[in-house]
Amino acid sequence: MANRDFLDSQVLSxxxxxxxxxxxxxxxxxxxxxxxxxxxxxxxxxxxRKYVPGDDIRRLDWRAWGRSDRYYLKEFxxxxxxxxxxxxxVSGSMAYGPEKATRxxxxxxxxxxxxxxxxxxxxxxxxxxxxxxxxxxxxxxxxNLPARRGPTHLGLVLDSLGDLKAAGTTSLIExxxxxxxxxxxxxxxxxxxxLFAPVADLKSAVQHLRFRKHDVSVFHLLDQRExxxxxxxxxxxxxxxxxxxxLADPDDVARAYRQAVQEWLVGIDEIVRTTGxxxxxxxxxxxxxxxxxRYLLGRTPKxx
Length: 304
Fold this sequence. Notes:
Layout: H1 9-15, E1 34-50, H2 62-68, E2 72-80, E3 83-89, H3 103-120, E4 124-130, H4 133-139, E5 144-148, H5 151-163, H6 172-182, E6 188-193, H7 199-211, E7 215-222, H8 224-228, E8 235-237, E9 246-248, H9 250-275, E10 278-283, H10 288-298
Parallel strand pairs: 3-4, 3-6, 6-7, 7-10
Antiparallel strand pairs: 1-2, 4-5, 8-9
């Protein structure tokens, strides 16, 4: 069994009172706490519609009949369970950071906690590792577990999460397109990545997920040093995804680097505006429990 030290019992206890809500209607297979696109029976009124022969007369609104002398049925929102898919980027750049505090370690804490919370409220949980053929040679085959319910399956998801290794070049774009096609029913897809990919390609992949009616959340993991580029002496910069190392004087490249990073982040912001995804830019120094609390509170539906 993999080590599950990325789960903190105190954090789980603090977040238990905050349910995980879907922002769009879900198609589940059991009754749950999430809104469904089909009509059913719950306490949430949806609409009136005219009676047609064959409808259940027990759903007739007799007050509406008394006012209009016409037969109307009350329809209510159906409540269902959620399919949660954790899409984890395991390219080499996710190994950035000190030992036991890398980008992938941070992603484990976020994803593992959310998986536990979702399973606790009866939702189905699955995991999808974004890895290409080079990753298979270096770190073994990636893990892809479909979303299912139950404590046994949750254990498999958590063990798989603990076993993930960051290696090889990125295949994030291909994995997003593949998830859009292979996750057949609408789901909540959470992406944990540094998003190091061409902005145009990333936008196309996110639009594909949204076209398939998936509720997409992105946890964008960055380190402050990647944003500031505060180096005061010549350094050797190593490409964690297999490219050539570069020996450079920071004074010679800092201005161009910061400008390129700013343009890239502007492109990411444009994707967020045009696709409506739930986006969170996170620094590895941030308290992950506070990040999750804000995320869960931000998804709480407003009372009608």
